[in-house]
Request: fold
Amino acid sequence: MILEMKVPSPGESITEVEIAEWLVQDGDYVEKDQAIAEVDSDKATLELPAEASGIITLKAEEGDAVEVGQVVCLIDTSAAKPEDSSTEEPKAEVKTEAPKAEAPKTTESKTYATGTASPAAKKILAEKGIDAKTVSGSGKDGRVTKDDAVNAVPSMGTPTGGNRGSYTTKMSMLRRKVAERLVEAKNTTAMLTTFNEVNMSPVFKLRKQYKEDFKAKHGVGLGFMSFFTLAVVRALKMYPAVNSMIQGKEMLSFEFVDVSIAVSGPKGLMVPVIRNAENLTFRGVEAEVKRLAIRARDGQITVDEMTGGTFTISNGGVFGSMLSTPIINPPQSGILGMHNIIERPIAVNGNVEIHPMMYVALSYDHRIIDGKESVGFLVAVKEALESPEELLMDGNIKKALEM
Reply:
């Protein structure tokens, strides 16, 4: 029996995917539920499992865009499993052969004939400061003629003799979609960014004192994301316009906080969502951040886990960014950018002290968020991070950390 395997729907509103990589080869024997391909949608990279055991015949190539419901391979379920085959061998074969097939092709610098130049050509080239060896000669045996010299253009750079190759690689569907959304955000929103700085000493002090006990009890580290997420939740309650978005001619405001966290995955930027962050504790936030980050890293994140979100937090500081203007994640109206923490001298009660400082940036849609609200929101985040025991823990650290 020949089974036609069709592309399943990865999520609502997705009508097309791209074959990112076949994990098996044409004619291989596959087992039921074995991952046979990775497919890119405009939101995530997903694995395609075999629906039955048998010999597979591929009907699409890597890089092909295929519609949901389209047949991408056939499986002969009546075929017997070869005695000397195993489900591991096809994967190993692909891994050893794929780099050769996928290796980027470099474009070598064109090598011109090294024929001599005519006396007239030499004079013209000398006046232009051009080496005759770099000119393509059209005369006999590559001889550089007067016309060649007249048409020769001096190099705008200093000849180095180094490799001048280049190559192109196809952008994944996910990367193309991210690019489209970023351009859309720039073109369709009245985006503005406001900045502030945060003294992270109080957070550092709490983490230093409680992080070991926190990890021992809960199995996750006490990171910065829980402080920032809970500070954002508090600020969004104070300034609900930041937790809103434009819907036609109306402003849609949310009574819950779904925080999108921008993380770097193997296929590019991903934004999994922490649902109902307003109901989470420090432990709850850290556990969810860890779970989503691992799933994004391993390519297991689903479309549902990245759908929605009412506000985004982006942490460019993990890559060393000191300051940036993050781009809004549409249709949201605000995104908070965290940056690297550097010890800097600041004035404290008339004295110069050194503290771990972080710049924070809020990009927002000025169509529905006024300057007063945006600045107030960012100040509220700053206040919560500089007084976490009072504003995020209600004065009871151990209870807040569930110690």
Summary: The CA atoms of residues 272 and 306 lie 4 Å apart. The first helix runs from residue 88 to 102. The first strand starts at residue 2 and ends at 6. Residues 86-113 have pLDDT under 50 and may be disordered.
